[in-house]
Write a structure and sequence with these properties.
This protein is mainly α. It has helices at 3-36, 48-60, 64-67, 75-103, 111-126, 129-140, 144-168, 173-180, 185-219, 228-236, 240-270.
């Protein structure tokens, strides 16, 4: 095929591509206008501007005594509790996600088994974290343990999905030689697959911990421990100076964790 024929084919395809782009643009524009019609501005009152000013003023002038309080009710202790909830939940969820991931891999398991495993993983991942938190509060009561259980369950779903992607991209040629040596399926996974996946799995766990730290802060709103409960109490009582202290602590904590997690993940990918 010469150059002129390629040019002719390109111009022949352009009308269809143009129609596709225009259709997509019209659909997106329609969805934007349709979504905008559901927005109700009747809830905005005259005092809303004053409340907004109070919020901004409280954030800009935080309660420093509350921020640097080292007691059990201070921001620093509550942030430490939030880190512990996110860390334990991530570790438990990451460990439990390993068998789910291998059972859900089409490369390692028969298709019916892998399909059932993926279906269970999707079901676990579908339920929001707040719903898990409300359910576990009925079981174990309010407190950090409920937060750990919730973090564990929501970590299983997402971490399993990322594990599966790593396993599917794995070079499994080594398994053939291990099969000829008479190794069992478990020995093939332990000696031939896990060493290759360790760095990927660890990077996924660090990434999930970064996400769980934010979710743990929100879970406190339903009584699952951490800094979320004092935050909602301060907001309901219009103590915006305390809200500002909590938000400053959260921002600094997230920035520090994200900085170190990015460094570790980059080192794992390069090394």
């Amino acid at each position: 095929m010469n150059q002129s024929q390629r040019v002719e084919e390109q111009f022949a395809l352009e009308p269809s591509n143009r129609f596709y782009k225009i259709s997509l643009f019209v659909i997106v524009l329609f969805l934007i206008f349709w979504s905008a019609t559901s927005v109700n501005f009747n809830g905005i009152e005259e005092s809303s501007l004053q409340v907004a000013q109070s919020i901004i003023n409280g954030i800009l002038h935080p309660d420093l005594e509350f921020l640097f309080n080292f007691s059990n009710s201070g921001v620093l202790y509550l942030l430490f509790e939030t880190i512990c909830i996110a860390f334990l939940g991530t570790i438990v969820g990451a460990v439990l996600a390993i068998p789910f991931a291998f059972l859900s891999s089409y490369k390692l398991m028969p298709k019916p088994v892998a399909y059932v495993g993926r279906l269970l993983t999707m079901a676990v991942r579908t339920i929001p974290s707040l719903v898990y938190g409300l359910m576990f509060i009925r079981v174990s009561g309010p407190g950090p343990f409920t937060g750990v259980l919730t973090m564990s369950f929501i970590s299983i779903g997402m971490v399993t999905k990322l594990y599966i992607d790593a396993i599917e991209n794995l070079d499994t040629d080594i398994l053939e030689s291990m099969t000829s040596m008479g190794l069992t399926k478990f020995e093939q996974i332990y000696y031939g697959i896990l060493p290759q996946l360790f760095s990927y799995f660890l990077s996924i766990v660090i990434y999930r911990f970064d996400m769980n730290l934010r979710d743990a802060s929100v879970l406190g709103l339903v009584g699952a421990g951490g800094i979320g409960a004092p935050l909602i109490f301060a907001m309901n009582s219009y103590r915006w100076n305390e809200v500002g202290s909590i938000l400053i602590g959260l921002v600094i904590l997230v920035l520090i964790i994200e900085f170190f997690s990015n460094k570790i993940r980059d080192r794992l990918v390069k090394g």
